Q: What sequence folds into this?
């Protein structure tokens, strides 16, 4: 685990706060530019469009998920930094977006100081998990959300560890490029370590291939390699490279709002359906 601070990380004190019925998915990959934020925004929008109640937690100091959902800096009075440092409640940070049933807890650059400031506190890895426990509070209205998506920074730092400690499962975006698999084993190792020490229930929900380019032979080869290496963990849905997807954030809109009919929107809707399907299977497995 990437944890350079001194002092051990203690196991979570007491029961895992059950984040009501919400399923918590951390969208993680320590590589930048692979489609984490794009997936958080557009998977969140697609899930909301098909009837789920979704909360995005922006855990990247860059705040791209917040910006991409049209939340300007002035509106970020209370941020995820205030929440995980314990200054404010999660409820105070949550903002509605233009998409019905899609809310966000925005981030600001303050978040980049979290590791230095909190690196010595014994519960430093469980700050987010504790905050998500507030989803059970009566004030929040238990059951307010059916999915919580955490947009992680491009690093295996303490913020990402917080996300992994708080999540039910990890969703890994992988860009269809030559070095796609490079770094994946390190990510899987970290997930394993978090599972052994901080969060025994953690699993890999799935791997989503992003920015697929049909005109590029390499893209096809990468898909084949990743499927061979990771088997059924790879979602059937592949997100194509689509200019509409990359244009949408500059309008502060998810691509599904910007251009519902484009191939990028269609792909994220398919991914949402597939994820709900997988969730059903997990639920049946847990019940049996
Ligand atoms: N399917 C796609 N088609 C075209 N551009 C994409 C697609 N997915 C992501 N991008 C663009 O790639 C860049 C990196 O994506 P982003 O989601 O910000 O990655 P990360 O959060 O992993 O750093 C952004 O400019 C984004 O608009
Ligand atoms: Mg990002």
A:
């Amino acid at each position: 685990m990437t944890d350079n601070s001194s002092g051990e990380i203690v196991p979570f004190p007491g029961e895992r706060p059950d984040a009501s019925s919400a399923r918590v998915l951390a969208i993680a990959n320590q590589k930048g530019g692979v489609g984490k934020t794009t997936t958080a925004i557009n998977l969140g929008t697609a899930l909301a469009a098909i009837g789920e109640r979704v909360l995005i937690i922006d855990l990247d100091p860059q705040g791209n998920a917040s910006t991409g959902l049209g939340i300007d800096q002035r509106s970020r009075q209370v941020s995820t930094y205030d929440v995980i440092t314990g200054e404010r409640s999660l409820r105070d940070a949550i903002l509605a977006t233009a998409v019905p049933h899609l809310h966000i807890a925005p981030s600001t650059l303050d978040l980049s100081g979290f590791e230095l400031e909190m690196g010595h506190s014994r519960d430093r890895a469980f700050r987010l998990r504790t905050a998500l426990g507030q989803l059970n509070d009566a004030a929040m209205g238990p059951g307010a959300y059916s999915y919580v998506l955490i947009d992680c920074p491009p690093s295996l730092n303490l913020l990402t560890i917080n996300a992994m400690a708080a999540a039910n499962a990890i969703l890994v975006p992988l860009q269809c490029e030559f070095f796609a698999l490079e770094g994946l084993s390190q990510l899987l190792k970290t997930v394993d370590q978090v599972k052994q020490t901080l969060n025994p229930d953690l699993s890999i929900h799935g791997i989503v291939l992003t920015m697929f380019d049909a005109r590029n032979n390499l893209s096809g080869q990468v898909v084949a390699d990743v499927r061979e290496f990771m088997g059924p963990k790879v979602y059937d849905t592949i997100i194509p490279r689509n200019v509409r997807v990359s244009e949408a954030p500059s309008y502060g809109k998810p691509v599904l709002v910007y251009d519902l009919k484009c191939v990028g929107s269609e792909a994220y809707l398919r991914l949402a359906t597939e994820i709900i399907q997988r969730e059903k299977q997990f639920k049946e497995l847990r019940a049996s």
